[in-house]
Amino acid sequence: MKYLLSIIIAFFFVSSNAQQLEKSLLWKISGKGAKTSYLYGTIHATCDSLLDKKVENALKETKQLYLELDMDDPGMQMAMMKDMNMKDGQTLDQLTTKEDYDMLSNFIQENVGVPLGMIKTIKPFFISAMFIPKILDCPMQSVEEHLMKIGKRYNEEVFGLETVEEQMHVFDDIPYKDQMDELVKSAKDNLANDKKEFQEMLAVYNTHDLNKMLEFSATAENKLTSKFESQLLTNRNQNWIPRIEKIIKTTPTFFGVGAAHLGGENGVIRLLRKQGYKVEAVF
Q1: Is residue 165, in this structure, part of any structural domain at all?
Q2: Verdict on whether the full-model pTM lies above 0.85
């Protein structure tokens, strides 16, 4: 449950014609009075969350761990449940034809084991996340959980760059009809395209090439992130920058956020550079 937004965003990368970045998921932040900190591009659902030694060394050098959310907060799941429903009493059956709703209802029952009528007020994006285990087709692992495990070894407290409410409200800014259309499309082809694109995305991520991650979305069939880049990535990146600046002025920090947030003209790396910080790849 706590990985819903992050996992979905991890499927897709936003295209950009910005200058190429070096191949690395780990970046060192310094200069302008900052305590030396690190920025790491994660993937939120994978078959192998094993981290490189250089990542562990970066965690060892820092004093605290910031993820997109404070993932060891015991109240996180309850806060997420509170904002999962669509606004204004909307329901899934209002967003598509009766034929497609009935098809989706059967698909959800068969693949998730939940009657669609019981969850028909939930934002469609979050129902899509219920398919992740089937799409991944392996025991799901999380890079964030691995980072937290290593951080705990070095007594690092975990914090979040944004609140659950901020993340959840992203999907009130994306029309529910667009979310529903993608959900129906996934069900109609029995997740075939989702599985194919997820495996392709994993392969791209394993190259550590942020530029290829950006190019990936150009041919992806799911259009939500390219159509709503501002809501899913750009606005959030811009909100994070003053928060990151405040944090690194006082404490050496390891930041772990979805790799989709790092690259591009509006990615965290270039936004920090524009603020005068030195952000360099760690090879």
Answers
A1: yes
A2: yes
